[in-house]
Amino acid sequence: MDLTEYIKLVFTDYTLRTITLGTAILGAVTGMLGSFAVLRKQSLLGDAISHAALPGIAIAFLITGAKDTNTLLLGALVSGLIGTFWIRGIITKTHLKSDTALGLILSVFFGFGMLLLTFIQKQPNANQAGLDKYLFGQAATLVEHDVWMMAIVTSICLIVMLTFWKEFKILLFDADYTKTLGFNTKTIDILITSFIVLAIVLGLQTVGVVLMSAMLLAPAAAARQWTNSLSVMVFLAAIFGALSGVFGTALSATQNNLSTGPIIVLVASVFVVFSFVFSPSRGLLFKQIRLIKNRRDLELHKTLAFMYHIAESHDDVSHPHTIKLLNNFQGYTKSTLQKLVDKQYVELNGNMWNLTKKGFETAANLYTKQTTDNE
Amino acid sequence: MSNAQLEIQIIASLVAIACAIPGTFLVLRKMAMISDAISHSILPGIVIGFFITHNLNSPLLILLAALTGIITVVMVEYIQKTGLVKEDTAIGLVFPALFSIGVILIAKNANDVHLDIDAVLLGELAFAPFDRLIIGGTDVGPKSLWVIGSILLVTVVLLLTFYKELKLSTFDKSLAASLGFSPAIIHYGLMSVSSITTVGAFDAVGAILVVALMIAPAAAAYLLTTDLKKMLAMAIGFSVLSAIIGYWVAHWLDASIAGSITTVLGLVFLMIYLFAPSKGIIAVMYREKQQRTEVLLLTFLLHLKNHDELSERHVKHLNEHINWQKVRSKTVLDLAQKNNMITIENKIVSLTQKGHEFTTKAIDYIITNEDTQIEDMKDDFFLFRG
Lengths: 375, 386
Description:
The complex is a heterodimer.
Chain A: H1 3-12, H2 14-39, H3 45-52, H4 54-64, H5 69-93, H6 98-121, H7 133-136, H8 144-163, H9 165-173, H10 175-180, H11 185-224, H12 230-254, H13 260-278, H14 284-312, E1 321-322, H15 334-342, E2 346-349, E3 352-355, H16 357-364
Antiparallel strand pairs in A: 1-3, 2-3
Chain B: H1 3-28, H2 32-41, H3 43-53, H4 59-82, H5 87-109, H6 117-122, E1 132-135, E2 138-142, H7 143-171, H8 173-178, H9 183-205, H10 207-224, H11 228-253, H12 257-275, H13 281-306, H14 315-321, H15 326-338, E3 342-345, E4 348-351, H16 353-368, H17 371-380
């Protein structure tokens, strides 16, 4: 299948259109809310909540006996919230650290969920088949109704986020200050956390419990590398998330036997790796280049300073010296000398060199930084 | 109790012990989530091992899986060192990616073999007794018993050999380093043991139970003691207890053994979380309430000390002045009276001799800012002993 054919299919084929739209919306909302999770150092909360939602799904099924997506997700939401607040309770009231609390709630809730699921499977109710799709997610089961629900929840998230933007932002960066300003930090905190839980629950059906945490983190972590502004980060994360959804769906649709969830996660990971390497200000590549450049500048400065100390003992700054004089000094090579010449700090005449006036002044100010022009 | 049932319980208990030991150190080193990451990210190791050997029981699988576990740790540390994201984000980025690769590898190539993801994540302890190890024609017991038994043996030997080093590097990394124990070697040693234990246990009980067995008993024990030896012993005790109770619950409900053991672990933790004598939630809340009252009492006495005027010392006025609710002021008044700090005549409150001494001392301590002294004072004046 080539690209144009695929794009045509996205618009004509019901299933493909639904899935593409669903994963795109999901990616956008998780990216958006994930930014807050990442900045609040709650990255692994997503992992914990997505696992903690499982018993809620099972209990909702046990109570209603029906497999209605909305009811099951409501159950997931409730048990996710219980898990979240228990985690908070453990962290604030005991000396156990957040990683212990997260791991504990995650595994215990998930184990309890599995107990209930296996218990349900032994029941004579034939309706129970397919509950375990929430474990790994099955994008293929998305129907238009689910996409509508995602869209509605996403818009609610968006409205709330825009309304409380200022509060969210200030809480992120200076919680104590927020308190002194008279904001009710607890309420804002609960609001953000609840929305994160909501986004995770939404994704359960599509990418499943196990991979949900990546959906929350990866777009946000990628977006973080490109900007220092919260609004840009949230926006970029939403875009990255949506793109991961679209590309992931496309890849899994064009290949046999590729489950959508893991592919989406891998696409999101590619975004992360790309951002880690190529982001201009924080990326590893440019950081390395800057490091090498700095090191070179340092060598250059060392040579210049050495020359300065020799030239200092003469009345005439541009008094020529033989290159041999520099041999005792380790920091110079032909090419570094050439660079100094290019910058017009030094003049070379055969085997002799002399500092120019400009070079002398730069060298004199190297360590006092009195000039602005000492690159 | 049949032979198979006994074997399942023995395997479950051995897994429990093998997990609780490294788990205790993970919890103390604030690396509990690493166990979750490892348990997911070893999947591609297992799958690749399977592709090479085409044998689910090959030791190569365990080796490759453990190696993937170590790679996870290294990757997390590398990402963290770049400073681009925080540690927890690094963990959250690495393991889902590796897990996804594992899932895709299975879906692409191993559709027709017995290697489905459910089995990997959940495990099925109930089948363990059917997979026997046969040497020279004689049946020497279930294979998982031998696997987990050897892992446990190695863990225990390592624990006993390196107990001192482990303890030191857990609580004081820099001291350990300055004494010549390399924290890096201890760190990677612990990671290797956790990784191998996860793989070994994983086949029998699945990924999630491994995490629960590593973290929950240690967390519960940590709420009861701060002594490392006691903590280890308690963690082992809790995990074995939960394994056995969990087995019988599963038997009774006819449900997943791993899930039921995890649930029992959760309940054990909940009980300790609520009722632990000094660190349980109830004890903490009671202590917080008591401390609040103590502070109120002190404020109240200081107010009395500062004001000689009758009008300032009227019971009603105190209500208004310090702006307390009726119930609260009555509690404080009663408490002060019980402790012989004040006397009340005609609704006028005055400090007793003891009250005067107490407040003078309190002011001293507040000025010199020696908080610990306040605790001694409570003993000196028999505060709260009515």
